[in-house]
Every structure is written in C-alpha cells, then in structure tokens.
Amino acid sequence: MGVNRRPSAIRVEIGELVLDGFHADPAHVSAAFERELARLVRQHGVPLAANGAVTVTALTGLPPLPAGLSARRLGQELARAVHEGLSGHGEVTP
C-alpha cells in the first residue's frame, strides 16, 4: 500500500503581474492575490507539480477579468485564474 503524502512545503514565486486597464490600488490587489492564492494552494495543492518540482515561465490562455472590480475582488479573481493555470488549465510555458 502506497503512502499518499502532501509535500511539506509548496513555494510559488510570482515574478511580475502585469495588469493593463485596471484602476485598482496595486498594493491591495497584491495583498488579496497573495491571500487567495495561498488559500487555494493549501486547499487544492498545485496539480502541475504533483510529480515533483516544476518551473513555469508564463501562464497564458486564462480567462479575462472584468476591469471594474475592486482591488480585493481583482486580487481574488486573479489568484483563481493563476491557480487554474497551475492546475493544468490554460497554456503553460515551461
């Protein structure tokens, strides 16, 4: 019988988020993004890294986000879109 173990640590580094066409406070967007992405990773893991460490240069093909969102909501929705990419949806550039 195999042991189903979750990794003891998951590290996600985001070098840069580029948001064109949004008028929200970048610091608030960033804080909401970090909180939501951390929650999603804790809850669901990072499926692309199920077999070990993975480095992704870019995620593309993710759903568009409405421009009128609040900073908090924009950060949350952006984190969900990124997590979807890390779950194998969208296009991954290794």
Following the backbone from N to C, one meets helices and strands in this order, namely HEHE
Largest sheet: 2 strands, antiparallel
Calculate the terminal CA-CA distance, rounded to whole Å.
Answer: 33 Å
Rg, please? Answer: 14 Å
Question: What is the residue-averaged pLDDT?
Answer: 78
Q: Count of DSSP helices?
A: 2
Instruction: Give, in spatial order, the strands making up the sheet with the most strands.
Output: 1-2
Organism: Streptomyces lavenduligriseus
Protein name: DUF4424 domain-containing protein
Task: Itemize the secondary structure elements and their pairings.
Layout: H1 26-44, E1 58-60, H2 71-86, E2 91-93
Antiparallel strand pairs: 1-2
Organism: Streptomyces lavenduligriseus
Protein name: DUF4424 domain-containing protein
